[in-house]
Each structure stands twice: as structure tokens, then as C-alpha cells.
Design a protein that fits this description.
Blueprint: E1 5-9, E2 12-16, H1 18-48, H2 54-67, H3 74-83, E3 122-130, E4 137-144, E5 150-156, H4 161-172, E6 182-185, H5 189-192, H6 194-202, E7 207-209, H7 219-231, H8 241-258, H9 269-273
Parallel strand pairs: 3-6, 6-7
Antiparallel strand pairs: 1-2, 3-4, 4-5
Helix pairs in contact: 1-2
């Protein structure tokens, strides 16, 4: 005998099987997780461009949605902005005499000019997204551009600067004294923040950033993200954040110490990174 769950709607009585009921519940849960990620990404960009409109935001952030496995059309994107109170209010008719929004520092792309001859000459940084049923984790990665070794990483609940800063401090802790690599990143608000750039400059690291918001200007960092997701299954949906963090740590260890790179003549990143000068 097939059991049915009866649900009373505004239009009357509707019969639904338990399978359909729980499938719908799971789908609603995933949509809420996706909406939270969208909110975080929009707030991050709005920290730099407070009045950037929804259409431009959608186009700018689309590749982030795709990377995180969030499939959303423009209409649904605007619905999320409305639900989260993120639609831009119309400008007042009278002109504003003060501007309370302060620009963050940006830097030229110095990385593209470099010819590397060894490790710790340049680091590339990026953030990727790890899905769990409890919400997204934000994984900050710092990779040595020569050896391809992940020298610093941190997975946390927020897109705020502290996650990138923890990854940076992780990397700096292993950096030999007196060595000052170039730090290259995109122009995300975390990397442009005064807190982050102050830490870099205090340690003597020069700063480089992408200039055209094109992925190819930070292609090496993007490639490392892809390897972790595709080859070490970080792109899967984990049940809990605790499980995801454990998997991330294992993935970084395996990537650094056991994965041969064709670009490194089939040596591992750790082997190349640790070779005597």
C-alpha cells in the first residue's frame, strides 16, 4: 500500500508522496544555501562598488556561481537580491554633499612581468567555495608560483578578510627569514583591504593585482582550485563543515606531496619547493 501525505494549500487539498515531500525539502535547503552564497558574494563586491546594479553584478559574479555549482538565472538572482534587501535604492533627488564610501588601494599587475627561477619569488592567491549541507565554506589558498606548492590555506565560514589573512599568516610562518615574495591576487575586497595590504607591506612583500578582472591574469591560482575540486573531490557536497575541512586538509597534503606535475618534470610541488638553492 502506497502511503501519501496530505498537504492543505490555499487552493485546496493536494496529495503528495513522502518521496516528493522530502525531495522538495532537500531542494529548498539547497536553494537557501545557494542564496547565502549569493548574498556573501554581492556584499563583497558592494564593499568596493556600493551602487553597482543587479545586471552588472550578475554578469561579474556568474563565473563564481558556476564554480560553486550554483545554477541561477537572472530573474531568480534579482529575487534573491530582493529577499536579502540588496536591491539598490534610487538616488535621492537632491545631490549628496559628502561621500561616506572610501576606496580601497589597488595595485598594478607586476606578476606578468616576472621570470621565475626558484620558489618564494612569487605567490598567487585566490578564494574558492566548498559546498556543505550546513552552508558554504570559503577556502583561501596561497600557492608558490614556481613550485606550485600550496604554502598557505584556510577554510572558514566568512568571505571577510580574516580568512585570507589566516591563509597569509600560515604561509608567512614557513617563509625563510629575509625572503620577500611578490604577492599576486585579484582585486577582491579582502586582498584590497587595508588590514591585508598592511600585513603584506609590514613583512616586506610587494603587491600585484589583476587589472582587467580576467581569470587569465590569475590563471595559476585558478588552476590549483580546479585540481583540488576535480581530482581530490573538494567540489563535492559534504554533509558537514567539519567533514569538508578534514577533506580539504587531506587534499592539500596529497596535492603538495604526492601529485607529480608535468610542468615540474613529474616532481611534486613539495620536492621542487624544498630543493636546495
Amino acid at each position: 500500500m502506497r502511503v501519501k501525505i496530505s498537504i492543505i494549500s490555499l487552493c485546496g487539498k493536494t496529495d503528495m508522496t513522502p518521496q516528493n515531500f522530502y525531495k522538495g525539502k532537500k531542494q529548498r535547503s539547497r536553494q537557501e544555501v545557494d542564496a547565502n552564497l549569493i548574498e556573501d558574494l554581492v556584499k563583497q563586491e558592494r564593499a568596493l562598488q556600493p551602487r553597482l546594479g543587479g545586471r552588472k553584478l550578475y554578469k561579474m559574479l556568474k563565473h563564481h556561481f558556476d564554480e560553486a555549482g550554483v545554477h541561477i538565472g537572472r530573474d531568480r538572482f534579482f529575487e534573491v537580491l530582493k529577499d536579502k534587501g540588496l536591491l539598490v535604492d534610487p538616488l535621492p533627488k537632491s545631490p549628496r554633499t559628502t561621500n561616506s564610501y572610501h576606496s580601497l588601494p589597488v595595485y598594478m599587475n607586476e606578476f606578468k612581468k616576472m621570470e621565475l627561477s626558484g620558489p618564494n619569488q612569487a605567490w598567487v592567491s585566490d578564494i574558492t567555495y566548498v559546498r556543505t549541507s550546513e552552508g558554504f565554506l570559503y577556502l583561501s589558498l596561497i600557492t608558490d608560483a614556481y613550485s606550485r606548492k600550496i604554502v598557505g590555506f584556510h577554510a572558514g565560514d566568512t568571505l571577510e578578510t580574516i580568512g585570507c589573512l589566516n591563509a597569509l599568516r600560515n604561509a608567512l610562518g614557513e617563509l625563510p627569514e629575509g625572503v620577500c615574495p611578490l604577492h599576486h591576487s585579484d582585486r577582491g575586497s579582502q586582498y584590497c583591504s587595508h588590514l591585508y595590504t598592511k600585513e603584506l607591506l609590514a613583512r616586506g612583500l610587494r603587491i600585484s593585482m589583476t587589472e582587467e578582472l580576467h581569470c587569465y591574469e590569475n590563471a595559476l591560482a585558478e588552476r590549483v582550485n580546479g585540481i583540488l575540486k576535480q581530482e581530490y573531490y573538494i567540489g563535492a557536497c559534504f554533509k558537514t563543515k567539519r567533514q569538508a575541512i578534514k577533506a580539504i586538509k587531506q587534499a592539500v597534503m596529497l596535492y603538495n606531496t604526492r601529485r607529480p606535475h608535468t610542468a615540474l618534470e613529474y616532481e611534486t610541488p613539495a620536492e621542487v619547493h624544498n630543493k636546495p638553492a
